[in-house]
Amino acid sequence: MNGQSSEFISNNDTSFIQDTIIVDTNSVNELEIDTSVFQQKAIFGGNVPSNKIKVSPDSLDAPISYNAIDSFRVNLSEKVIHLYGSSVVKYKNIELSAERIDFYFESNEVEAFGVYDSLQKKWIGNPVFKEGSNIYIAEHFRYNFKTKKGKSKGMVLKESEGYLHGMEIKSIGEDVIFGKKARYTTCNMEHPHFYIEIDKVKILKDKIIVGKPANLVIEDVRTPLWMPFGLFPMMKNRNSGLIQPQFIFTYSDQLGYGLRDLGVFWAINDKLGLTTKADVFTHGNYSLYTFLDYRKRYGFSGNLDITYLSRIEGERRDPDYGGPSRSLSFRWNLTVDPKKLNNSSFTISTNIQTTGFNKNLIGEGDTYLNNSLSSSISFSKNWPGKPYRLNLSANHNQNTSTGKINLTVPSINFNVNNINPFEGLSKTGNRKWYEDIFFNYSVRSETRISAVDSTFFKQETIDNLRTGIKQTAAVGTQIKLFKYININPSFNYNEFWYPDAVSKSFTDTLIVDGDTTFNRITEDRDYGFKTARDFGFNTSVSWTLFGTWYFKRTKNVEAFRHVMRPNINFNYRPDFSEDRWGFYDNVQTDTAGNEVLYSRFEDGILGGPTSGKSMSLNFSLINDFEMKLRPKRDTTTTQNSRKIKLLNGFGISGSYNFARDSLKLSDISFSSGSTEIYKGIRINFRGVISPYYTDPNTNRTVDKWLVKETGRLFRLKTFTANVTGSFQSKKTTGNGNSAYQSNSLYEPWYQDQYFGNRTDYVNFELPWRMNFDYSLTLNKSFSSGQDTLIITHSSNFNVDFSLTPKWQIQASMRVNWTDLEINTASIRINRDLHCWYLFMEWYPIGRQFVNFGVRVKASQLGFLNKLEKSIPANSNVFSSGF
């Protein structure tokens, strides 16, 4: 019967009248067998009244449901239900599907088979057994729902990233499986390209696969890589275990031969994990690594990293040999979950090293040149619905080359964001101008200690301690004029508090420790509570202008649009170096009585009032140019009109300082945003021009207008342009991986959500792709009285294309067009081997080396990724072998 389905609970006490019941479309619509009451709705030969049935203690604890697309037949004498045509049996989280299934309801066993299709000339509907997230495929399958034991022939199991092919598989429980003549691989082919052949295997679900002996087989050829046993972890959660080391067979004059990453990982619990590793080399160098990571959900997370290095420099037999150089690194990171701190956050980032640690890191590239270390501890808190925010931090900076240490502890920042004190005072419902008045405030406090590591804990370091407080306040508003012009005036105020100030004096003769110095400026500290302040006024005016030109319908161009966004900003700040403020002073510099101005707060860690009056007008203008084209086929409608951006974000900017004595107008800067000039090609540029005359002999700008001296408005100083392009082929609609097409029994389930698609490894959608960028820079200056133009330009090219669906070539090159030379170049060739890939890299310029090897794609078998070789390009290894 088509679409037959039912639910059944096994009961050993059930008895039936007839031996066989054949169910089809002409007999019964549904077969119902219940645990308490059995009611047979249609039986040949008569009706049987309902009887109550006792439940056997051997019954299952959950119902079994089954269905079949074609039909099913019940054999009462053998107590078996035969399901035909895409049959499915379900029990709890277990699902068994096959073309034919026999369900023995007394023993709670199922037996599943595939069927040979004479029309398609292949086996179809082979058993697929799903238990939770585990999938098993077999030619023949038998399983007992009660005992959880099963046996199969030709089974394929998917475990983690790999597949286990087994001639005979036996399950003795929910978590243990045994097998004979098994093959473990990450290749998803019916006949895999490579596998690890295991004579006997034991599988602990979601834990590990153990087998003995194990031999790597590639293309049915056994390799010398033979092991007495094999271990393949499948843990979904982290577990303790050994870390696979890396053997260094390439001899190094400094290290010799060696072993890297030899260690163990200890999963202490779900929240703690400890990794310990070591690097050992034959010349006596070694490294020890300890890494502890911890995480508590909704609590905190972080790690602790300690590294110890021992390096030998020179020969032990040398008279001046001083022993190995030892160094230590300590790193600690901690982050507390904001949910735990109630709208607060707390982080610690510590990085402390002994001098010379990075120099002892061999083969670490840029790390070797890094001499700067930094650490920080920070806490922040905000108040929901309130404009307040508090930040507390401590920072450490260290230069391992100079030994200089800078420590900031503590640093306190408290901010009050914009507050509108008069908001809501209007009674008319219309927002008044005074409701937009805002106020903000912030206070910052810091204490800094600077010293070298050798004197950091001495009294002189305490004497050089610096501390200060800075307060900032601003008040302003927003005014809209004529509905289109935005005016934003504001007043800014800064105040500085320090425990001392600088006091300088001139001494014509100074004797210190018997040494005499003449004409020297001495600096003293004037202790006591000192304050300073500055303020300024600022206002900005901005608006947007639109201009559109429409063309006749006979033209292809429908309209041209110009958008302008001008902005004018005026700011004023007094000269706080004037005597009336008392923030600056003069000090004599020589016996002639010459003096120089200095700030009494020049070494204040949070700054101080600036000198010089400022009254400047800043201006900028941003332009967008767009064009709209009519559709080619229909010139009577604009529904399908196409917009083109001709130039995006083209702007000019500059300033005019009324307080300056000369050169009041600044240089004029211009730039553009990234604009697509053709499909895939974009351009942007920037530059600087000067309105003043430049003296050819000194190359200095003179306070003379260029237009009066030469007749030109501006003189170009610098210009930079960048052109980038990206092109790629159209995506193909077919599957280029025809070599892997097969009509085997594996084809259906290799395309499902559990096993994926065999074309996932290689992207056949883009046969080619190319990226490039071109950079041009112009610099103009006078040299020996001549106006000289210096041009530098360079390009980068990257090409990626496929010669065949399996051969890919990647090439990159950087060209310096100024010197007509190639700075860097590389060529990489990849050969897709389905579950492996072969690669070769050639760097003919610069480092000049060749690197090639074979790698397996699945991380599950990452220990096989050691088939690599890197050699200098000019080596004779190609002729001598390796």
Q: Can you give the mean pLDDT? A: 78
**Structural class assignment:** mainly beta
Rg for CA atoms: 41 Å
Largest sheet report: 31 strands, antiparallel
What share of residues is helical? under 10%
- Oligomeric state as shown: single chain
β-strand number: 56
- Termini, distance in Å? 69 Å
Helix segment count?
3
Strand content: over 45%
Low-confidence stretches: 7-50, 363-368, 733-764, 876-882
Summary of the model, kept short:
This protein is mostly beta strands and 882 residues long. Helices cover 2% and strands 59% of the residues.
Describe the structure.
- 2% of the residues lie in helices and 59% in strands.
- The protein has 882 residues and is mainly beta.
- The strands form six sheets. It has a 31-stranded antiparallel beta sheet that branches. Strands 8-9-14-15-13-12 form a six-stranded antiparallel beta barrel. A two-stranded antiparallel sheet has the order 3-4.
- It is extended, with a radius of gyration of 41 Å.
- 13% of the residues are buried.
- The C terminus is likely disordered.
